[in-house]
Input
Amino acid sequence: MAAEKLGSRPVDRILVTGGAGFIGSNFVHHVVRNTDLSVTVLDKLTYAASREAIDALPEDRVELVVGDVADATLVDKLFSDHDAAVHFAAESHNDNSLHDPAPFIQTNIVGTFTLLEAARRHDVRLHHVSTDEVYGDLDLDDPKRFTEDTPYNPSSPYSASKAGSDHLVRAWVRSFGVRATISNCSNNYGPWQHIEKFIPRMITNLVDGVPPKVYGDGLNVRDWIHADDHSSAVLRILEQGRVGETYLIGADGERTNLQVVTALLRLFGRSEDDIEFVTDRAGHDRRYAIESGKLRAELGWSPRFQDFEAGLADTVDWYRRHEDWWRPHKQATEAFYAAKGQ
Ligand code: NAD
Ligand code: DAU
Output
C-alpha cells in the first residue's frame, strides 16, 4: 500500500476514535473512498454508535477495536502502532448532558487527556474534532460570526466539556510539543445521525405522522453543514494543516429551526400548522454561525453540498430507506423527551 504524507511523515494507517458514530463513520468512508490509507477505529459502541455504518467497508482497509478512549493501557498500545489519529469520540448530545453530565466529563475530558498523553509518549500526529459550541452563542441580529479568535464561552455541560478538551489539546501542544490541530465545526446533518438529534427526530416523527416538536419559539439559528463536507475538511487539515493551529469548519448554512422544520414539512406535503412548540432546552444557545475563511484561504477547502434544501431531501430519503436501523430506537428516544415535556 502506498504511504501517504501527513505533514512531514509517510503514514499508511490512521487511528480514528468514535469511527462508528455519525460523523466518525462518515469520515472513515471518506478516507477509504479518497485515499490509500487504512483505518483502525477505536469505538466504545455506546448507544450512539452504529456498527452497521462501517460494516460494509473492506476488512483489509478498516479494523474495529471496541474500547474506551479513557482506557490508558489500550490507548497506549494503539498509539504505539499508529503515526496519526483523528479524535471524534465523544458524548455529543446537549440534552443528555443536561440530564446526566458525568459521561461527558469522563469521555470528552478524561478521554482526550488519555489520548494526549499517548500522543506525547509516541509522538503521534493528532487531530482533535471539536464544535462551534465552545464559543457560546450569538444574538440573532448580531452581524458577527465565530472566528478562530472568538473567546471561549460554553453554555452547556456538553459544550463546556468540549471546551475543556480543546484547552487540554492547546496546552499539550504548547507545553509538550504534541503535533496536534483542532477543528471547530457547526451543526452536521446527513445519514446515520442518531434520532435523538433535531433533524432525524423531526424526519422520523413525520414518517410516523407525529408533529415535529420545536423547542421554545423555534427562532434559534444553527449553521448546517453536510457530514461529508465536515469529513473532507478534517482530512484536509490532517494532511495539510499547520500543527498547533485551530480551523473553523462551516458551509454558510444558517437557518432558524422553524425554517428547517418548514422545509421538512414541505417535503412530507404537510402544513406548518402541524408544528408543536414544546418546553425549551435549559440554557438553549440562540445562534451559532461560522466564518470559515481561514480554512478556505489557507488550505483551499470548500464545501461540496451548497444547497441545504437538496441535502435535506436526500437525508429524508435516506431515513425512509433505513427505517430498520432507526425504528428500534424510536420509542425509547421519544419516552426520554416526553418525560421532559418535549
Ligand atoms: P455521535 O454521538 O454520533 O458519535 C460518537 C461516537 O463516539 C459513538 O460511536 C460512540 O460510541 C463513541 N464513543 C463515545 N464515548 C466513547 C468512549 N469513551 N470511547 C470510545 N468511543 C466512544 O457523535 P457525532 O455527532 O458523530 O460527533 C462526533 C464528534 O464531532 C464529537 O467530538 C462532537 O463533539 C463533534 N461535533 C459534532 C457535530 C454535530 O453536529 N454532530 C458538530 C461539530 C462537532
Ligand atoms: O453546533 C455543533 C453541535 O451541533 C454539536 O457540537 C453537537 O454535538 C450537536 O448535537 C449539535 O448540537 P445542537 O444542540 O445544536 O443540536 P440538536 O440537534 O440537539 O438541536 C438543534 C437545534 O434544534 C437546537 O436549537 C435545539 C433544537 N431542537 C432539538 C431537538 C432534539 C428542537 O427544537 N427540537 C428537538 O426535538
Notes: DSSP finds twelve helices and 15 strands in the chain. The CA atoms of residues 214 and 277 lie 5 Å apart. The first strand starts at residue 4 and ends at 6.
